[in-house]
Amino acid sequence: MGSAARPARLGGAFLLIWSGRSLSLLGGYVQYLALPLWIRQVSGSTVAGLLALGMNFVPQIVCAPFAGVLADRFDRRRLVIAVDLAAFAVAASLALSVDPHRLGWVYPHLAVLQVLSALSVPAFMSMLPDVVPSGRLLAANSLLNASAGAAVTVGPLLGTALLAHSSITVVVWINALSYLVAAGCMLPRTPGAAHADAPAHGRVRTQLWQGLTAVRTDPVLRSTVAAEAPWNLCFGAASELVLMHFGASALEHAPGLFGLGAGLGSLSVTLILARVRRDVPAASLFTVAVLGTAPVALAVAWLAAGGDTWRVVLAGLLLGVHAYLIVIGPTMHCQQRPDQRFRGRVTAVRRAWKAVWQLAGLGAAALLTQWVPVPAVVACGGVLATAAATPWAWRALRADRPHRPAATAAPVPAPTGGGAR
């Protein structure tokens, strides 16, 4: 009897995909910080380096809705493979042509890689619930995000070390080969990975409207994305603010210590959730994370007021744990609630919406910090985020209870498996 009640294993098909995405994520984060630092070194321009980092945001807003249309129109597994192979070709081209005297050639490569990443995520995340057993979606998502946490922790350190002791070409080649490995791990056909229903057809405008309608007419999705707007506006830039605050402190290695803490926090909470053996409602996870924003913000603000090593690491740890908890609920809603035909578009709509408010929050925080200390901005932002988002999160929780899916697996990865980078 106990054996019959035991949830099914994730299975070899998922573990192969997870391995490929994990390596792809690691390759992406090896290049993520090293390439902008290299641009800063060879150009002498901070703006040139920041421009390379800034290219991560725009494709999410511009391309994500159209990526959702593609995810719902074509076979998702084949689409992810095609995108990974295209990304390998672009990254290999960059590795062959990267040169201090041709920096202008680097930016188009980065832009195309980010566009391809934006195209891959909705297809991969929409496919995931179809390849894991019933009741194991939380575990699958958590394992993918554990890989992201490990990649965030190790990747930048490895990338900067390779930049210092080898060359930028080696860094870029590692990223390129990681795309190839990820594509290879997707090649074996997995049960349920293809569309169960007829793919979407019609004009792109009509399909985009169908994705928006799927979000608007579902009370849980509608309330969830409504809650994410004020949350990201008020607290979405907290990690960046605290990182910059510690970067200006007297502690030389504060940014690296903060990143280490954030990576360990994300990794630890995802590994814990990956071992959960029962169905945990996504709406409950999201509501708890929203309610926890104010206490986390006040604690981080207190920690940021000092410059000790333990304060820096602990602040990163708290924000790393909370950053995962706030995204896992909405991610699972987009996987579980829509009809399979609309999953890609729903995921893409939510990602584009979230990116818009993240950018707005980052801009607002940059303005406020001209007159208000960073700890005060973080503390007030966290309290406002909880106050503004809680009513909507509570609505999503109440709407989810009577009609919650029977299993957290499918009817339906940051950056996130490699398919989420």
Structure description:
The chain has helices at residues 2-5, 12-43, 46-54, 58-62, 64-73, 76-97, 106-127, 137-165, 168-186, 204-217, 219-235, 238-247, 254-274, 282-291, 293-304, 309-336, 343-368, 374-403. It is globular and about 55 Å long. Helix content is 76%, strand content 0%. It folds into 2 domains: 1-194, Growth Hormone, Chain: A (Up-down Bundle); 202-412, MFS general substrate transporter like domains (Growth Hormone, Chain: A, Up-down Bundle). The chain starts with a helix and ends in an 18-residue tail after the last helix. It has 421 residues and is mainly α.
Please outline what is shown here.
The chain is 76% helix and 0% strand. It has 421 residues and is mostly helical. The protein folds into 2 domains: 194 residues, MFS general substrate transporter like domains (Growth Hormone, Chain: A, Up-down Bundle), CATH 1.20.1250.20; 211 residues, Growth Hormone, Chain: A (Up-down Bundle).
